[in-house]
Amino acid sequence: MNRIEHHPILTFPEKRTLTFYFDGKALSGKEGDTIASALHAAGVRVLGHHFKSHRPRGFYCAIGNCSSCLMVVNGVPNVRVCVEQLEEGMDVRSQNDKGVLP
Amino acid sequence: MSYDKFEQTGLAGPHEMSTCLPSEEQRKKGPYAVIECFEEIPCNPCVMSCTFDAILPFEDVNSLPLVDFDKCTGCAVCAGICPGLAIFIVDESKPGDFGTLRLPYEYWPLPEKGQTVMALSREGGDVEPVEVVAISNVKGARTPLVTLRLPKDKLQDIRGFRFLSEEEQAALKDDTEAEKTADIESLESPIVCRCEGVTLAEIRDLIAAGCHTVEEIKHLSRAGMGPCQGRTCRQIIMGELMRAGIGKTEDMPPGSFRPPGGTVTLGQLAEGGDSDA
Amino acid sequence: MRDVPLLIIGAGPAGLSAAYRAAEAGCDVLLLERAKKIGGQLVKQTHKFFGSEKQFASTRGIHIVDILAGRTKDLPGKVEILTDATVLGIYEDGVVTADIAGTIEKIRPQAVIVATGAYERTLAFPGNDLPGVYGAGAVQTLMNEYGIKPGDQVLMVGAGNIGLIVSYQLMQAGVKVKAVIDAADRIGGYLVHASKIRRAGVPILVRHTVEAALGDSEVEQAVIVEIDDEWQPIKETRQVLDVDVICVAVGLSPLADLLYQAGAKSFYISPLGGHVPLRDQNMMTTLENIYIAGDVAGIEEASSAMVEGELAGVAAAQKLGYETPDTDQLKESCLAELRQLRAGPTGGKIRTGLALAGVYS
User: Fold this and answer.
1) Domain presence at residue C226
2) Boundaries of domain holding B122
3) Residue B233 domain-assigned?
4) Are A67 and B263 inside 8 Å of each other by CB?
5) Mind listing the pLDDT tens digit for each residue in C162-220?
6) Which residue has the higher pLDDT, C361 or B93?
7) Judging by beta carbons within 10 Å of its beta carbon (0-12, 13-18, 19+), is residue B271 exposed, middle or buried?
8) Domain A17-93 belongs to what architecture?
9) Measured CA angle at A84 (ends A79, A85), to 5 deg
10) Which member of C71, C175, C240, C307 has the greatest number of CB atoms within 10 A?
């Protein structure tokens, strides 16, 4: 479990669970998560592979600056998942190329 | 090599401590605040919070706090307020071999009154098991304060505590990691431009081949042409140019910047805005 | 096309403070924020702030957002705040384009305050792109916004204020920090922060650097090494640490893309974090009616970002004709506060940088 249960300063209220799909596999996240935070909480850190070097990619800045976290979301490529809100039923896929328009 | 200066270790030594402790006489009269703040930073909540005027007035917001121990009552208001968690309340006025130390504590969970914890030195090293005698906590705002009962001769040496747990002790033993080595030289060259997957070796080759500006390197390698537009790689490339003796970063043009300053789809552009610009 | 008197880009400490002061003088403000909520980096700062009462010293950053946002209400001027709104360009005819919740819009402001903040710098070492090598801001976002641990064992690279604060926050979230390293020969951040994490048993190793991140598809280990006077690794001192996160806290650079695009004159000023747009005493850049405030004007603390924001807000409103009898006095007191905050030894770097930028003599 990667979620913080107790914190001396912050409280994280219980939120609704959302189901989404990562490369076809059902995972659960929480309302208010971004796609990247939900994946991370579910233990997924490799979000795709670079189109040229084929090296594994994760997020780096988590605030939409660096574009290291591009994935295919509901068929749309090049989505920065660190700033994209998670929604119920989302189809999230690893991106290993430059992306193909839907 | 050893680095033992305060600004290298973050550990207050005899020199620092000699500036913040009361006299023998003053120590006998009651609890007092030990303010371990030895660097001039812009910060003044302690002096503003003291209702006894026991912290000498600041010349400006960067002044160091100095306690007038004749006025300090050890009330601990400053200790709960200090953003640096640098204030400790010591009481060695009671007869006997033991005194108390109140220290700021912002971790979860708080200990319980009566619990035995391991007292820690300024370096976080174990000193000895001690008893928690009081806790004051206003969650969220001020910092909780935990009071430990300590031998009088260790009141100035103990500045933290940790919970005693078998698991943690086992983990600590595992922590002495075996001697390991790594063959760094054979690893792949680091990535400079994440978007376009350009390595440090490629950048260095281009510089060796005569590229002397960020712009040239960008055109030839695509470093900086991906969706982040150079936010990750530009500084490193400039550093490499400097290292190669091409000039100082101060004099280097950073390369061109063009809109859009964020990722948009062509569809958004086609639909958006209006035509009266 | 939207016509607004004053457009502020970025609703962090600087942008919110600018909006407050401009609207107080009677100027309507449109405040655009790229993220889904306002506050900029304040939303993840769980520690109590330094500074003095005027910059909310001893209040936690997470609580300062509400105070700043509250101040923008019920003023003579109206502050409209839009989130999920990314500004894409500032063009020579004064038109600004923005992606507002997925739709491209054009805005024609009479003045602009750019308060876009900063971006995180990174380091080139083998394996630096492996998942698990995260910027310090990313680690904070994950922990303090989403309540998720970034990993179990962390190597912190950088002993400046951000590296020290994030190390402390990691421990508060129950994550083990194996070590904090810094290539410099002294701790760069406030020593009270350093003492605090030393008390928790975390070693701080100065003159150490990260040589590599090891792992097949994610970070599994980090290699660190001591460096000599020429900044070369001393190979005999190499250590391999079992960590699943390498947190990079090696500083910030001003996020000034929009200003370069628009043609604002800027210089590379190392003590301010990189390329910084030049500005005058009123925070106006070399472009007429385009102002800056906060980290985009040079990397500093949130306390000075708020004061710079107030100054830019007052000055921009005044330039547009919105004045009160207190305007000039307010500007003076902002300048005095900034001088105070930068007066001590820890402000030396900022003073040097600003002198290079021609702000201080």
Assistant:
1) yes
2) 6-164
3) yes
4) yes
5) 999 999 999 999 999 999 999 999 999 999 999 999 999 999 999 999 999 999 999 99
6) B93
7) exposed
8) Roll (3.10)
9) 145
10) C307
Find out whether the peptide bond into B260 is cis, omega within 30 degrees of 0: yes
Inter-chain contact C120–A47, Cβ cutoff 8 Å? no
Question: What is the residue-averaged pLDDT of chain A?
Answer: 94
Tokens read off for B49: 């919070």
Per-residue burial over C260-275, b if 16 or more Cβ lie within 10 Å, else e, is bbbebebbbbebbbbb
pLDDT digits (tens, 9 = 90+) for C293-319: 999 999 999 999 999 999 999 999 999
Facing residues of C7 across strands?
C30, C112
Report yes or no on C292 lying in a domain.
yes
Verify that B148 and B196 share a domain, yes or no: no
Look up the domain containing C133 and give its range: 122-248
- Between A and B, how many residue pairs show a Cβ–Cβ distance under 8 A? 46
Mean pLDDT for B92-120 is 91
**DSSP β-ladder status, A76-80 and C274-277:** unpaired
Q: Measure in Å the smallest separation between the Cα of A86 and chain B Cα atoms.
A: 19
N-terminal to C-terminal alpha carbon distance within chain B = 65
Q: What is the spatial distance between Cα B143 and Cα C62, in angstroms, rounded to a whole number?
A: 15
Boundary-marking domain end, from C208, C229, C248: C248
Residue C142 shares a structural domain with residue C222: yes
Nearest C-alpha neighbor of C179 from the set C162, C150, C200: C200
Count of domains observed in chain C: 2
Confirm whether B16 is domain-assigned: yes
Specify if B55 maps to a domain.
yes
Same domain, B210 and B139: no
Residue with tokens 């000699």: B18
Could you tell me the CATH number of the domain that includes residue C259? Answer: 3.50.50.60
pLDDT confidence of A61, banded at 50, 70, 90?
very high
Write the single-letter amino acid at C63: H
Q: Using CB atoms within 10 Å of the CB of residue B121, give its burial: 0 to 12 exposed, 13 to 18 middle, 19+ buried.
A: middle
Q: Which of C128, C226, C275 sits opposite B191 (nearest CB)?
A: C128
Provide the pLDDT for residue B185. 74
B149's enclosing H/E stretch is strand B145-151
DSSP secondary structure letters along A23-76: TTEEEEEETT-BHHHHHHHTT----EE-TTT--EE--SSSSSSS---EEEETTE
Residues C115 and C256 in one domain: yes
* B216 in the same domain as B159: no
Residue C361 counted as domain residue:
no
Domain contains B178: no
Give A31 to chain B, closest Cα distance, Å. Answer: 24
Residue C20 lies in a domain: yes
How far from each other are the two terminal CA atoms of chain C, in whole angstroms? 42
Whether the complex's predicted ipTM is more than 0.90 is answered with: yes
pLDDT at B173: 47
Contact (CB, 8 A) for C25 and C324: yes
Cis peptide before B109, with omega less than 30 degrees from 0? Answer: yes
Higher pLDDT, residue B245 or B179: B245
Q: Which residue is closest to C346 within chain B, CA to CA? A: B41
Q: What one-character DSSP code corresponds to residue C35?
A: S
